[in-house]
Amino acid sequence: MDLFLPCLLFVMLHRGNAQPSPGYYPSYRFRPLRGFYRGFNNLWGPEHQSVSGDQSSVTIWLDRNSGSGFKSIRPFRNGYFGASIKLQPGYTAGVITAFYLSNNQAHPGFHDEVDIEFLGTTPGKPYTLQTNVYVRGSGDGNIIGREMKFHLWFDPTAGFHNYGILWSPNEIIFFVDDVPIRQYPRKSAGTFPQRPMWLYGSIWDASSWATEDGKYRADYRYQPFVARFTRFIVRGCSPAAPPRCRPAPSSTYGAGLSRRQYAAMGWAQRHFMVYNYCRDPKRDHSLTPECRS
């Protein structure tokens, strides 16, 4: 009995912090691309990008010479976009691995963007997953970021995990292993991206800010820094698609989140969110009116 009670308590605590079931699994609802080149092309750093023979996966890496990136062949006006990603262990400070939507090339200096970014780290400290939304931002230092940051409930270097963005006319939802971790609703036309965007993946050196605000920089003694992507899901409407092309559903109800999904998101935010721009007293919230509504 003396041994049984501590063991029971350990099991109960572990279960209490275990990943809850969201009840809806978009990463399995939609079929993955049959081949990388059916959906993407290399954008930069082709010599730092390797596509598997069956085109089911792509590996990109950063060294002192270059990083690498890929871009979807076509733009989208909405959709669900997912990939299974495995990150590199060890010293990765200053390195960003990103999976995101953007129209920066179509609207330079005035673009929209929806980001999932993995901020590299030092040994013994966890990766930070940063989600962000830019609306008609610029590259001149006046970008208004809407960052929410999380530590994960698993080791993202030990295996592949699914990360997804669902973008509909009324909301953006970020998913990790089908758990919604953030819902960004459309509260006004000025705070929500509405122009078509392309899907990207990349790895690059962001030493000036990525790890503890630039305290730790990329150290190329540990190169190459590698990111692996597989099981791409690209389910969206192109700008030219007819009206019958409907946005991907975010729940069993279609739009919005179910009660189970809200509960799962609350769990993720209570236990793993480490930064919320709306709660940052140093931010000028007149620039982010959605925080006040």
UniProtKB/TrEMBL annotation:
The active site consists of 113, 117
Task: Note whether Protein biosynthesis occurs among the keywords.
Answer: no
Q: A GO biological process this protein is involved in?
A: cell wall biogenesis
PROSITE patterns recorded = GH16_2 (PS51762)
Please state the Enzyme Commission number of this protein. Answer: 2.4.1.207
Spell out the post-translational modification annotation for this entry. Answer: Contains at least one intrachain disulfide bond essential for its enzymatic activity.
Please state what the protein is called: Xyloglucan endotransglucosylase/hydrolase
